[in-house]
Specification:
By secondary structure, the protein is an alpha/beta fold. It has three domains: about 60-75 and about 100-200 and about 235-285, Rossmann fold (3-Layer(aba) Sandwich); about 315-470, Thiamin diphosphate (ThDP)-binding fold, Pyr/PP domains (Rossmann fold, 3-Layer(aba) Sandwich), CATH 3.40.50; about 490-620, Rossmann fold (3-Layer(aba) Sandwich). Helix content is about 40%, strand content about 15%. A seven-stranded mixed beta sheet has the order 7-6-8-9-11-10-15, with helices on both faces. A five-stranded parallel beta sheet has the order 1-2-3-5-4, sandwiched between helices. A five-stranded mixed beta sheet has the order 12-14-13-16-17, with helices on both faces. Helix 15 packs parallel to helix 21 (about 450-460). The radius of gyration is 27 Å and the shape is globular. The structure holds thiamine diphosphate, 1-deoxy-D-xylulose-5-phosphate and magnesium ion. 1-deoxy-D-xylulose-5-phosphate binds next to loops. InterPro entries: Dxylulose-5-P_synthase, THDP-binding, Transketo_C/PFOR_II, Transketolase-like_Pyr-bd, Transketolase_BS, Transketolase_C, Transketolase_CS.
Length: about 625
Amino acid sequence: MLEKIKKENDIKKIKKEELPLLALEIRRFLLEKLSQTGGHLASNLGVVELTMAMHRTFSLPEDKIIWDVGHQSYTHKILTGRKDGFDQLRKYGGMSGFPKRKESDCDAFDTGHSSTSISAGLGYVYARDLKQEKYHVISVFGDGSLTGGMAYEALNNAASLRTNFIMVLNDNHMSISENVGGMSKYLAKLRTADIYTGLKKQVVRTLHKVPVVGKPMIRNIRKTKSSIKQLLVPGMFFEDMGITYLGPVAGHDIEMLCEAFREAAKVEGPVLLHVLTKKGKGYPPAEQYPDRFHGIGPFQVSTGLSRDKKEKETYTDVFGKTLTKLSKEDERIVAITAAMAGGTGLEPFQKQFPNRCFDVGIAEGHGVTFAAGLAAGGLRPVFAVYSSFLQRGYDQIIHDVALQKLPVVFAIDRAGIVGSDGETHQGIFDLSYLGSIPNMTILAPKSGRELSDMLEYAMKLDGPSAIRYPRGTAYEMPEEDCQEIRYGKSEIIAWESQIAIISYGHLFEEAVTVRRLLKEKGYSCTLVNGRFAKPLDTDMLEEVCKEHRLVVSMEENVQRGGFGESIIAYYAGRGKAVRVLPLALPDDYVEHGSIGVLRKEMGLDAQTMADRIETAYQEQEKL
Ligand SMILES: Cc1ncc(C[n+]2csc(CCOP(=O)(O)OP(=O)(O)O)c2C)c(N)n1
Ligand SMILES: CC(=O)[C@@H](O)[C@H](O)COP(=O)(O)O
Ligand SMILES: [Mg+2]
């Protein structure tokens, strides 16, 4: 069936009775491919029929499907001619794990971060109407996405529409882990409503029996605003806003889904189609542990076990362990996560201190202000958050935390290149967006051990601070004698002459190799662990420029507004003609691929950096 799809490139040509077989083949295909490459398995297994039904009902690329987050778009990719791309899924130069307009004209909007699909879809609707075009717009979002504020802003905005806009709520009762909050509770109630009719079955059955007026009454109940409707029609939250609610619909029944989509397409106005699916559907290990199979590396299909042996401690593990330890000693410490307790290493803390751990949902902006409130109330909040997701909380950091100098610690995981998730997830802007905020202290450890020390140190600061650390194994420095952390002071690892390398954060591991490579070529090379990007260690900078011909900064952040540029600005501000070579990321987005490959592509691997330094030094010598 998959071959037929590939040849015909149109699911509409598949016979109705062949659709369940196609769904089965898609699931087998996803399992086979993802067990080799890794990827977002559970969410994709859950939307196979939903995607098939959309593709059968609508016509792409004319109609626009907008996937929220986009991690569930794999069946859509298969059905739009990209089946062969799965061998290179999320690999450098290969197919992205998210929708990309540049990849296909059937990808209507690029996504990666949660809760954007309704806003983008609404934009499309208004563009369509103003240009007097005719197509359908369908935004597909999960129950997890409905914990994010943007979704409500968009629903509120969409409610006044007079033309068709289909919003599909793919409700699998899960975010990455268990979904949280009041909306999740409300959806759970709706789930118990009778499937699809939208009206209680018994009422409908009775009304159907009433001659002549029965059927019109059913239609009228849908249209009325009366309180009786509340008893009969689920989804009043949406209905009362002015959004037609259809559902709940059985999300693995293709025919029913197609029928529901046809109905939804007829509504003149915004319509929310509530679809019930099972995360991990069809693969027992993923059905049982949807969180574990949300995003995975290569695994064995027969057992569900990972193919990669995890032996070494990650920075995330170090953070989780240290936080738990510190929290035993200080009752004021509380932790916040925006639906990422697993990914940020908060689970041990959450287990040990359930009352002191807050999952706010996919709501980073709210999470920041909530942390500010906790701090104002006398607690010591730690917001554990991925670098790219914290972009959502920029105003809140300035307005609610830093302006009041509140002691919130931002434990910024996935800082730097994260790898296969690509552009939307690389944590390469945090130094730039945090560096411009007054009162903020910014730290980054060179090793796992130093992360632990920095967290302990940051808990004692009387203002906001951020500690950035990357995805992956924590560096263990041989014979590390972590010097005591002092405010705004770097750590001198080796002091020589000619070239001074000031490394910031986890690139230190590469810096050690760079120094070795340069020394092998006969250069004399100082190595400094920067520690603080804000405030800068200006005493160190003064000493460094006295005794070196070339100062090199290293960081895994875009150069604009980063560590290196602060050093350049410092020297320039004092009228010092110091040659600084900033080794950082270009003013661009970094696509998907393994971290090692991407670092090399970006010129931040040890060999390329050593070569660049040597060239710069020789140029400097010629002057
Ligand atoms: C702003 C932002 N924060 C966090 C994430 C990480 N994240 C990706 S998927 C997901 C859960 C989404 O749940 P839901 O929308 O219900 O989709 P499901 O995975 O259940 O299919 C989270 C928290 C993200 N992509 N964007
Ligand atoms: C889709 C999404 O945003 C998350 O699932 C993300 O892919 C998690 O990344 P990590 O694998 O680094 O936890
Ligand atoms: Mg969900």
